[in-house]
TrEMBL record, chain A:
Record keywords: Membrane, Signal, Transmembrane, Transmembrane helix
Membrane topology: Single-pass membrane protein
Species this chain originates from: Lates calcarifer
Pfam family, one: MAP17
Transmembrane segments: 36-55
Signal sequence bounds: 1-20
Cellular component, GO annotation: membrane
Keyword Transmembrane helix in annotation: yes
Family (UniProt): Belongs to the PDZK1-interacting protein 1/SMIM24 family.
PANTHER family associated with the record: MEMBRANE-ASSOCIATED PROTEIN MAP17, PDZK1 INTERACTING PROTEIN 1
Cellular compartment(s): Membrane
UniProt protein name: PDZK1 interacting protein 1
Listed InterPro entries: PDZK1IP1/SMIM24 (IPR031627)
Coiled-coil stretches noted in the UniProt entry, renumbered to this chain: none
Automatic annotation (TrEMBL), chain B:
Catalytic activity line of the entry: D-glucose(out) + Na(+)(out) = D-glucose(in) + Na(+)(in)
Entry's Gene Ontology molecular function annotations: D-glucose:sodium symporter activity; metal ion binding
Family indicated by similarity: Belongs to the sodium:solute symporter (SSF) (TC 2.A.21) family.
Membrane topology of the entry: Multi-pass membrane protein
Full protein name: Sodium/glucose cotransporter 2
Subunit structure: Forms a heterodimer (via TM13) with PDZK1IP1 (via N-terminal transmembrane helix); this interaction enhances SLC5A2 transporter activity.
Length: 118, 651
């Protein structure tokens, strides 16, 4: 981006210089001294480079913000899609990895009969 | 009144200065020892046994050989003779060719080389083959690049070397050129790219030091910069009336210096180098030369990392500021000091002075060397010219051998092993040296002073389609093989439609203008380059959008937008690579079986693992250290600011 703006700036300034140039016949009759033309060209170029920097920064921020928005929407969609979609998926999401019996009701499934002593 | 030319008042053309004093001879011998010594030393530094080592210097170069090699490969004897001569004839606008390159070389380092590096290619046709698939585009590019090397770069450098040798030294042209070519061939063939790049660094130092010395002496002789500005406009020759009024008349504009001689940007209709052409046409041709041509890109690919490439490009840019002051201004000084020889206009007079009727502006630089430099320093200037000539020729030899070996030979013999390719590369250098020697008589016959115009025209008519296709290939994913091929063919047809009639009619001179019809030759060649570039781009995009696109999976790390992607790429040329690999395997196993039978099974696995002659296995890394990235980017902006200031100053 910076390069493009640099080239455009160079073009604009040299077009300006040329328009001033082609109007005259003698090379000694310059409207501005040569060093001044050079300085104006440089300042224009630096200004346009600065503008290019700002534009690039703004664009990058927007695109990275856009990226995070896209990522979070994708994640949300995943959550929405897995709600009651397939049995395995739902089960896998809530199944505990450490304790395989975490969601089993041991009291009901257990073989020991709890009998209160009379 | 009519002044008849008095032959004795003209400096006789046999006023040659032979290098016969000890100071000159010592300097020349020291120069040759230095160059050959550096060549030999660099031979022991890199491994030249592999393709990567021979053609790409093992990818170990730091930024200063890269920058110096870029500069020395570009600056040839053609620049000394051509820039000075055109500067003498028409002023400083020809320096626009050099100063435009300051920006283009940055495009090379920032936009194109990252893509070439991640693509993992050695030659430019290889890149196109991977990018588009198919073989016709890469074949066309190899052939036309070799053609352009022989007809433009080699011939112009040899012509200029010949002009210098004949004007300043009076040596036999064949002996001198053959000796030079053989010395160049020796260190090119043996050392490969590494030797070239290190010797280029020496050559750069010699070129700049010598040219500075000459510029200093020239300005002292003419009386300073402001005196040059005043005196240039009155540097007219004494003899300007026609000797044969029935045949021709000489109008004053043919021998008076141009009023816009000191401005870079001239009128778009009446100027000899109109400003749109200077700004955009030269940028397009420069885009071909710096960003897509094998000679220049190969030096960037040999660098250690992307940061080194960028730093080398910046160094080359700064060095490219110098030719305006070291070659163009001395050329103008030469015309001020010797208006009757350098600025001669009457054809008979010119023929006596320099052997060609059209004009003698080409002798501007050699004349200065002969007349202004004291003893001892003339030897230095000869070393400078030799440095420029040898560095450019060596680079062209090496790159053309790379092109021939990796693109044409591997098509003829896909089963070629690495060792065979390196041998073929070396043999090709000798072949092209022989072709260059056979080219000398053609160059001499064409010594009509028109050679530089022909060179510029040939580049402007043939290069823009290539620049356009490469630019679109790197930046536009939609472009596919059909579009690129038909774009190249259409561009070639358009360029030939302009080039062939113009060669047929001849470009003529100020006194004898050519009768080329306006429709063909009316548009300035730089404007034609711009038109050709846009027409080719439109054609490429049109055909591409009408045919199927290339999938992203084939394009990872081949286009600018995907240069950082780490995904697996399905190469479009995998069929060819497979064929080549299978052919090599067959040959290897065939040999192994034969050897086994001969030696009774004792060979075993003695054959070392020969890798397929592609780039190194791991992908070249284009990540950059952030600190160095900022430093390099800041330096680039500073360099562009300096360039813009110089353009603004001389506009």
């Amino acid at each position: 981006m910076g390069k493009l703006s640099a080239l455009i700036s160079c073009l604009l300034l040299t077009v300006g210089a040329v328009m001033a140039q082609t109007a005259q016949t003698q090379v000694s009759e310059r409207l501005l001294p040569q060093w001044l033309t050079g300085l104006i060209a440089v300042s224009g170029f630096l200004f346009l480079t600065f503008v290019g920097f700002l534009v690039k920064k703004a664009w990058c921020e927007e695109s990275s913000r856009g990226m995070t928005i896209v990522e979070s929407t994708v994640r949300e969609n995943e959550f929405a899609m897995t709600n009651g979609n397939t049995y395995e998926t739902t089960l896998d999401m809530v199944r505990s990895t450490e304790d395989t019996n975490a969601y089993e009701n041991l009291a009901i499934d257990g073989t020991d009969d709890k009998v209160t002593a009379m | 009144g009519q002044s008849s030319p008095n032959p004795t008042s003209l400096k006789p053309s046999s006023d040659k200065v032979t290098i016969n004093n000890p100071a000159d001879i010592t300097i020349i011998i020291v120069y040759f020892i230095m160059v050959i010594g550096v060549g030999v030393w660099s031979m022991f530094r890199t491994n030249r046994g592999t393709v990567g080592g021979y053609f790409l210097a093992g990818r170990t170069m730091t930024w200063w050989p890269v920058g110096a090699s870029l500069f020395a490969s570009n600056i040839g004897s053609g620049h000394f003779v051509g820039l000075a001569g055109t500067g003498a004839a028409s002023g400083i606008a020809v320096g626009g060719f050099e100063w435009n390159a300051l920006f283009i070389v940055l495009l090379l380092g920032w936009l194109f080389v990252p893509v070439y590096l991640t693509a993992g290619v050695i030659t430019m046709p290889q890149y196109l083959k991977k990018r588009f698939g198919g073989t016709r585009i890469s074949l066309y590019l190899s052939v036309i690049s070799l053609f352009l090397y022989i007809f433009t770069k080699i011939s112009v450098d040899m012509f200029s070397g010949a002009v210098f040798i004949q004007q300043a030294l009076g040596w036999n042209i064949y002996v001198a050129v053959i000796a030079l070519l053989l010395i160049t061939a020796v260190y090119t063939v043996t050392g490969g790219l590494a030797a070239l790049m290190y010797t280029d660094t020496v050559q750069t130092i010699v070129i700049i030091a010598g040219a500075f010395v000459l510029t200093g002496f020239s300005f002292a002789e003419v009386g300073g910069y402001s005196t040059l500005l005043d005196k240039y406009h009155s540097a007219t020759p004494r003899n300007f009336s026609s000797m044969d009024p029935q045949r021709y008349n000489i109008s004053p504009q043919c021998y008076t210096p141009r009023p816009d001689a000191f401005s870079l940007l001239r009128d778009s209709t009446t100027g000899d180098l109109p400003w749109p052409g200077v700004l955009f046409g030269i940028a397009i041709v420069g885009g071909w030369y710096w960003c897509t041509d094998q000679v220049i890109v190969q030096r960037c690919l040999a660098a250690r990392s992307l940061t080194h490439v960028k730093a080398g490009c910046i160094m080359c840019g700064y060095l490219k500021l110098l030719p305006m002051f070291l070659m163009v201004f001395p050329g103008m000084i030469s015309r001020v000091l010797y208006p009757d020889e350098v600025g001669c206009v009457v054809p008979e007079v010119c023929k006596q002075v320099c052997g060609t009727e059209v004009g003698c502006s080409n002798i501007a630089y050699p004349k200065l060397v002969v007349s202004v430099m004291p003893d001892g320093l003339r030897g230095l200037m000869l070393a400078v010219m030799l440095a420029a000539l040898m560095s450019s020729l060596a680079s062209i030899f090496n790159s053309s051998s790379t092109l021939f070996t990796m693109d044409i030979w591997t098509r003829i013999r896909p089963q070629a092993t690495e060792r065979e390719l390196i041998i073929v590369g070396r043999v090709w250098v000798l072949c092209i040296v022989a072709i260059s020697i056979c080219w000398i008589p053609v160059v001499q016959a064409a010594q009509s002073g028109q050679l530089f115009d022909y060179i510029q025209s040939v580049s402007s008519y043939l290069a823009p389609p290539i620049a356009s296709v490469f630019l679109l290939a790197v930046f536009v994913k939609r472009v596919n093989e059909t579009g690129a091929f038909w774009g190249l063919m259409g561009g070639l047809a358009m360029g030939l439609c302009r080039m062939l009639p113009e060669f047929w009619f001849g470009t003529g001179s100020c006194i004898f203008p050519s009768n080329c019809p306006f429709l063909v030759c009316g548009i300035h060649y730089l404007h034609f380059a711009i038109i050709l570039f846009f027409c080719t781009s439109v054609l490429v995009l049109l055909v591409s959008y009408c045919t199927e696109p290339i999938d992203d999976q084939h394009l990872h790390r081949l286009v600018f937008s995907l240069r950082h992607s780490k995904e697996e790429r399905e190469d479009l040329d995998w069929e060819q690579e497979e064929k080549g690999r299978r052919a090599r395997e067959e040959e290897k196993s065939g040999i192994r079986r034969l050897v086994g039978r001969l030696c009774g099974g004792g060979s075993g696995s003695s054959q070392d693992q020969e890798e397929a002659p592609e780039a190194a296995e791991q992908m070249p890394d284009i990540s950059e250290d952030p600190v160095w990235k900022y430093i390099v980017d800041a330096n680039a902006i500073i360099m562009m600011a300096v360039a813009v200031f110089m353009w603004g100053y001389y506009a």
